[in-house]
């Protein structure tokens, strides 16, 4: 019985992390994102040229291996500046600050600007797989990363206040080191947003999406017993 409970708790790791990420962060910042970008654009008229890309681009590497400094992850990605901060009092913390960073993505002779960051809960999955006490294998980590993506996608699709404010970018890194894989993935998503009628689906990204197809039986079960 204890073993079964342990297995169920592992299944719920991704489910819990996705909901925590949404309730404790995305639900707070995403509805305020457009206003923040409007304010920034008024002060810097030529930086954010394409309104259709005024979204938070959330990177979801299925390896869960996150680089804290995006510029070190890909030299074609350069920090520009931060968007105006959102300051709220939360859970006893006065004037808690929420902010997003803008990055310039080099596209040959052109520069594209967008707000981008990693999905931070993936750091927890990675840390768990490195800690023997968590009894969490690399295979568990990859499966949980896929479940995290699927669960977060479903949550956000049902959140009316977040419509048009985000872009989830899930990807599997190539076994062969590609120094500009990340910038290329971002550029493809930016291009797709500018031309939504003609979706862009390069092989590398399509294969990542296909690998995320998970049967209903593989999805994490609700944490509450009264959920259907």
TrEMBL record:
Keyword tags: Endoplasmic reticulum, Membrane, Nucleotide-binding, Transmembrane, Transmembrane helix
Domain STING ligand-binding: start-end pairs: 12-193
Family matches, as Pfam families: STING_LBD (PF15009)
Topology in the lipid bilayer: Multi-pass membrane protein
Signal sequence residues: none
GO cellular component: autophagosome membrane; endoplasmic reticulum membrane; endoplasmic reticulum-Golgi intermediate compartment membrane; Golgi membrane; perinuclear region of cytoplasm
Protein name: Stimulator of interferon genes protein
Gene behind this protein: Tmem173_0
